[in-house]
Design brief:
Helices cover about 50% and strands about 15% of the residues. By secondary structure, it is of the alpha+beta class. Strand 2 and strand 3 form a beta hairpin.
Amino acid sequence: MKKIRTTLICGVIACALAAGTLAGCSGKIDGTKPAITVNGEVITMGEAIFALRYQQAMTMGMMAQVGLASTDQYWDLAYSESEEGESVTHGENFKETTMEEFEKSVLLSQHMEDYGLTFPEPLKEKISEVAEVTYKVNAEQMDKLGITQEDIASVLTYQTYQVFMYDSVVADVDTEVSDEEAKQCSVSYARYNIMTDTDIDKQEKDADPYFETPEEGNEAHLNNLQEFLDQVLASDDPASADFEAIGEEIDSKMLTLTFGFGADDDTFPQEVKDAVATLKDGEVYGEIVKTDEHYYVLRLDREFDEERTESKKKEIINERKQEYFNEIANGWLEDAEITTEKKWDEIKVSDKELFITNA
């Protein structure tokens, strides 16, 4: 099991650094100088800068790919306002949160022996190989930033502790989840959005059907849903009636899906949950349910969906583990003695100095 775990971690490292080369602009930096001290352990400028700039490059690369941000105008935009009323930029917030996560990794390494762990040699070798390739691909930029191959290997090692130590840290988390706590039902529905003036304005001129007003569109949708409901109730077995086929026959734009939810689920409106609560397995609610945003026809397929409930149990356990892990790491961070040097404080994340990954 440990061997498999190590292999998975190595795979994550290799994939992450295969994204591309690091490009940016910066003056020459002495990477041997201290940047941050965590409980007496010194993180050099080279290590801290690689941790920050690589994460910055990866973040901008991903955001650019999905069109969430321009790669030349983002970091200097206001993110929030501090308690003193001063504006905090995206860059300032990013530097703080990124380095907090890195400091947690350093703290994890300092507590490794508490869990009876030693860092596996195969993992050290893999990290060394990846660091060598990463440095060679980015040698010119790394030299300007004061980053050595050893700095890269050190940062990757620190960051790997979050994965390597996770199972040991959360080993004592309660993994017992009752059916009642995780209980999920299974519901099929047909649905339309309630149309507004905005929806009318967004219509294509050649839309079929084309509605002049929201009222006209909503009336048509209600009529379609009533026809849908009538067909389901009139079928030989409403409990097994094919919602998708019936909906497609009436109107291909009608949405039909099967979903699951539990008592504490806020994904669906209370009106839907209240209607479902009156049904037994296989029963169809006898009226169209209206919420603030949608019209529904509902059928309770299973009041207790075993498969969905088991999946929910795993979700609850994973949430417990992650919350506990965060609690432990945040506690170490709060109690740690951390100091930063002036040279590190002067390092900024801004639109004047960009770092992106070139695939």
